[in-house]
């Protein structure tokens, strides 16, 4: 089985978010709230559009397919895509993450890659590393702290002052797990960093995206999500604007944040009316920089995906390399074969809507989350 789980690229400091109740098949009952265990696959599948099939058959089928694609890395994915001579903005691009790998690959082809992160020093290191490999690459760093609405507005204003339009936005940044913590605006930090901040940022630079549209090109917005969206019961909408520490668990928070990414892609696609294509994706289980952050490492060890030494446990899940994980991001951004599949969820570079949990396949949930987030940021996101 694959699980990107708590292994996204970084986008902010060690942050996190909710009460996570899961089934334990060995006991045939619910575990106690807040107790973290590996969600049994048969539970995950029951959330897949109401299906009753054995989850092992569903999820392992995807894992076997992924195993057959272990050599399908980002550069190889890029080789099959159209001309990349387009300005691209990628959030969360620290070295040793899938955001950096995607930026590195795209920089070989794009005429401009805007890389973001909350640390100017780390951005400089990412830029220097890419340019060392590709001296002619046009890299532009942008400091972006997605956990702060004020910081998001400042960064968006900087983007909107650029001379160039933005053809593709890749919302890759994510916070790591850890103790319950609030953002400067009073939201749970993981939801703030993974969903609320990206929602506002996408909204504010939407004019830049729309300016790139032509008769033959539709701008794209990509959300790096995870199959762990299916490991929780869905989003507790009451806690998005009003977080409750009593309902918090790091992995439950992660599941909710990744669910929000998927729902946003679906609703953005619907509301854009063909003016912007949006996609979400699961890159796979990847051992990245964020995996070694204390809160995230502890959560992964608790469910057995990392051993006591902090290294990947291949007996528990299949693991991809960073280049393999970035391949689906590249495909979501550039593959013309999904042009007519806006709103789709991708896994291993292909549409995987059948793997969506029921709560992420429900258009009412997507609309509700959109409305709540508009209220949070204090302005509508319309086209």
TrEMBL record:
<dbReference type="Pfam" id="PF00106">
    <property type="entry name" value="adh_short"/>
</dbReference>
<dbReference type="GO" id="GO:0016491">
    <property type="term" value="F:oxidoreductase activity"/>
</dbReference>
<dbReference type="InterPro" id="IPR002347">
    <property type="entry name" value="SDR_fam"/>
</dbReference>
<dbReference type="InterPro" id="IPR036291">
    <property type="entry name" value="NAD(P)-bd_dom_sf"/>
</dbReference>
<keyword id="KW-0560">Oxidoreductase</keyword>
<protein>
    <recommendedName>
        <fullName>Short-chain dehydrogenase/reductase family protein</fullName>
    </recommendedName>
</protein>
<comment type="similarity">
    <text>Belongs to the short-chain dehydrogenases/reductases (SDR) family.</text>
</comment>
